[in-house]
Structures are given as structure tokens and as C-alpha cells.
């Protein structure tokens, strides 16, 4: 059942491209590649970020994992690339949530940082104490690793 849901969502996303986001399958049905372009006007603008989407055996009852392959300076992304967003945790609604919603939430994270739930405490603290330095670091890191 999960494989059919995953295949249906993949067909939808590959035939209805979302601006700044490109989804492609891998050789394994439960893993996708995503290329996300940093949103215009954000600290990640023009950066090219590669992500993996990994589906659990019990998908859609459990959310997929989103992992940044491209290193990113963001308080809501763990150092190993795993994304920390409500859409993957408490906000996941089995039978109603979709990968598209999760990917859109990640795009939103590239524009609006969530200091209430930092995956990296030191970045969350810097955001709170010196926001301008935090944003300069985002830009510099994007230029170094995503362009």
C-alpha cells in the first residue's frame, strides 16, 4: 500500500513541478532526490540544495525523513542534514499529509527561521543574540557550499 501512495505522489510532483523544486526518483522506490533552489530574497537565494526523501515502511502513517545532502547553515536543520519541522513531527496527519506539504514546509524554512525549535542550539542562540551575524553566516555558507 505504501509503495502505491509513494508512486502516486511522485507522479504528481514530477508532472506538476513546484517553483524552485525538482523531484526525481532513485533506484529505490522509498527514496527520492530533491533539488531545491533557495527562494529569492532569502539568505539562501540562488543556492542549489540537494535533499533526500526517505520513506518509512509504514508511510503514510509515519512521515518521511528529509535530509539535506548539501550542507546548510540553518538552526532548524541538524548537522547530519535531518530537517526539524512541525510538518514532519506533530503536524503529520496520516492519510491527509503529503510529501508536497513537507517539501513546501522546508521551502518555507528557508525564508522563515523557527527559533522556538532549533535543531542546533548554538545557531538558535546566535539568532537570538546577534541576528545579523547569523544571517551573514547563512549567506556565506550558502555561497561556499550551495553555489
Automatic annotation (TrEMBL):
Recorded superkingdom: Eukaryota
One Pfam family named in its UniProt record: UQ_con
Protein name according to UniProt: UBC core domain-containing protein
Domain UBC core: 1-147
Gene3D superfamilies in the record: Ubiquitin Conjugating Enzyme
Amino acid at each position: 500500500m505504501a509503495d502505491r501512495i509513494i508512486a502516486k505522489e511522485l507522479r504528481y510532483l514530477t508532472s506538476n513541478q513546484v517553483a524552485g523544486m525538482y523531484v526525481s526518483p532513485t533506484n529505490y522506490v522509498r527514496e527520492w532526490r530533491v533539488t531545491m533552489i533557495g527562494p529569492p530574497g532569502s539568505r539562501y537565494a540562488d543556492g542549489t540544495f540537494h535533499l533526500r526523501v526517505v520513506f518509512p515502511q509504514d508511510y503514510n502513517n509515519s512521515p518521511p525523513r528529509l535530509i539535506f545532502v548539501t550542507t546548510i547553515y540553518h538552526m532548524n536543520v541538524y548537522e547530519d542534514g535531518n530537517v526539524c519541522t512541525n510538518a514532519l513531527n506533530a503536524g503529520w496527519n496520516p492519510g491527509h499529509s503529503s510529501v508536497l506539504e513537507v517539501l513546501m514546509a522546508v521551502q518555507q524554512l528557508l525564508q522563515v527561521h523557527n527559533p522556538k525549535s532549533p535543531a542546533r542550539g548554538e545557531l538558535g542562540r546566535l539568532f537570538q543574540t546577534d541576528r545579523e551575524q547569523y544571517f551573514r553566516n547563512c549567506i556565506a555558507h550558502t555561497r561556499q557550499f550551495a553555489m
